[in-house]
Amino acid sequence: MKIEVTHESKGNIQTVIYPYLKDQWRANIQILESEYGLSAKVLDPLLDQDGTKLVIENDRNRKIIFLGLSEGVLPGKIRTDTIHAVRKNAGSFSFPILLDLRSLQDHRIIFEIINGLCLSSYHLGMYKSEDSPIDRRLKKSHAVVLLGNEQNEKVKSIIQEAQALAIAQKNTMDLVNGAGNLIHANALSKKAKKLSESFKSVSVKIFDKKKIKQLGLGCLLAVNQGSQWPPVFILLEYKPAHPKKSGLKKLGLAGKGITFDTGGLSIKPSANLHYMKSDLGGGAAVLGVVEAAARLEIPVSIVAAIPVTDNCIDAASFKPGDVIQSYLGKTIEIINTDAEGRLILADALSFLVKNHKPDVLIDLATLTGSCVQTFGYHCAGLFSNDQELSDQLVKAGLESGEKVWPLPMWAEYDEMLQSDIADIKNLSNKPVAGAISAAKFLQAFVLNHPSWAHLDIAGVALKENSFGNDKVASAFGVRLIIDFMQKYLVR
Ligand code: BES
Ligand code: ZN
Ligand code: ZN
User: Fold this and answer.
1) How far does Cα 315 stand from its chain's mean position?
2) pLDDT band at 282 (very low <50, low <70, confident <90, very high)
3) Which residue is catalytic, options 250, 277, 342, 471?
4) Which phi and psi (to 5°) does residue 182 adopt?
5) pLDDT at residue 158 above 90?
6) Using a 6 Å cutoff on CB, does residue 37 contact ligand 1?
7) How far is CA 441 from CA 94, 367, 466, in A?
């Protein structure tokens, strides 16, 4: 969505979005009376009501959408309410729409509203022969953001940042919403290459199957055995033009890039299997973080690894009972081929620690159904060996609306993964604490890195929301990691 920022009210615009703080709604009455012809009598019973959106037509034939915000409302809610307000009403909007921000001072709220507004124009019907009426309207849509005279340059830069972030989020969403038969490993490498072509600060190496063999990324090769398509291992580096002088230098990121997870020979049941096209959600989020960091010129370096393949069924597939050798050299007994994400991530994590020595290491993965059982769809699982990092991620999550919550990593859980014949096995015999034992498996491959966190985003990478009828990609992780970097790494 194209956004134009102005300080002058434009009288001819027919559709207005008017966000306001519910507790202070009376302060808005003067604007609403003089500018929008709404009398206090009409407004009184409306604006202090609970419920966030109200649509009323005024005597000047304008449609006004009120976005009522409560004090302390969570940022994620502001974002989704804004998206909802636009998508629900886009059919009857006349564009451009006016977003009147004059009553808002809080920069965080303004950021969320603009980010939501930009995300609302996301084009979901990517494979439709003809755009749906809503998509058609939103495609060329255009918003005019009206600021008060005292709202300065800072607000304008916040608007630009929220827009830049949304572009990266939408690119992540495209990969996760994309169909499994059309998004192969090469789709991710193409995106990664495009990033390096678009931004001087980003460089990319794509390891093909030959190179993957040479390097000994044995877990990625094993998972890829049943695939019709070769694997890739994407290595991205972001080096800011103006790095920060002191403190932490480099963030390491790893993202699970399973383009479709059938479960392999330990095949999954067919109910909800189509959602497994989203099993690259972690890898897509990592691409989104790198893009957002480049767009926002965040002054901290990133090194990111994304191992990519599908997990399919074939005579050549790896099998339960197989023993494979990881990049680190540890041997792994395969108990279940559906626990494939931890395998490819193990290689990516060891590769990063061994060759790139990141100061902080974070991985994102749609890793376990167990995590969905634990947290549902509102929160990702957080596992870390560094209390400070864990606390920072929890805070960044609460503040950004992409919530994460810690689960324990006590040594007792290591026993679950002891193999009789190999160094470790990829699944516990006991069907309990599945998200924790998956995290413990990964921990065996981070070479005692002192500051590592694993985010299990299985429940949050896809969400029910106002974009569509079925679950749709959320780009979970992009916003969280960017916020984390801005709050805790840029100091
Ligand atoms: N990709 C799945 C995890 C998943 C489940 C993601 C639901 C999104 C929604 C992962 O590879 C997997 O299959 N995990 C298994 C492990 C099992 C073998 C114990 C699981 O959690 O069911
Ligand atoms: Zn699986
Ligand atoms: Zn998987």
Assistant:
1) 35
2) very high
3) 342
4) -115, -25
5) yes
6) no
7) 54, 11, 36
What is the position in ligand 1's atom list of the atom closest to the CA of 266?
18
Q: How many helices (H) and strands (E) would you count in the chain?
A: 15, 20
Q: Is the Cβ atom of 434 under 6 angstroms away from ligand 1?
A: yes
Nearest protein CA to atom 9 of ligand 1, as residue: 458
361's tokens: 């290491």
Active site residue 342: yes
Does 346 contact ligand 1 (Cβ within 6 A)?
Answer: no
Neighbour count for residue 108 (Cβ, 10 Å): 12
Structural contact between residues 52 and 30, judged by C-beta atoms closer than 8 angstroms: no
Residue 206 C-alpha to ligand 1 middle, in angstroms?
Answer: 27
Contacts of 204 (CB under 8 A, 6+ apart): 192, 193, 195, 196, 234, 235, 236, 237
By the 10 Å C-beta count (0-12 exposed, 13-18 middle, 19+ buried), 214 is classed as: exposed
356 close to 303: Cβ distance less than 8 angstroms: yes
Q: What are phi and psi of 218, to 5 degrees?
A: -70, -30
Ligand closest in space to the Cα of 335: 1
From the list 268, 330, 395, 463, the catalytic residue is 268
**Architecture of domain 2-150 in this structure:** 3-Layer(aba) Sandwich (3.40)
The answer to whether residue 268 is catalytic is yes
Lowest mean pLDDT among 5-14, 39-48, 328-337, 349-358: 39-48
Q: Which atom of ligand 1 is nearest to the CA of 336?
A: 18
According to the model, what pLDDT value does residue 238 have?
A: 98
Query: Of the bound ligands, which one is closest to the alpha carbon of residue 336?
Result: 1
Residue 340 CB–ligand 1 contact under 6 Å: yes
Closest alpha carbon to 44 in 59, 58, 25: 25
d(CA 256, CA 383): 16
Ordered by start, the domain boundaries in the chain are 2-150, 167-489
Instruction: Indicate the class that CATH gives domain 167-489.
Output: alpha beta
Residue nearest to atom 17 of ligand 1 (CA): 339
Q: pTM of the full predicted structure?
A: 0.97
What separation in angstroms does the CA of 486 have from each of 74, 298, 463? 19, 7, 26
What's the gap in Å between 431 CA and the centre of ligand 2? 15
pLDDT tens-digit map of 176-226: 999 999 999 999 999 999 999 999 999 999 999 999 999 999 999 999 999
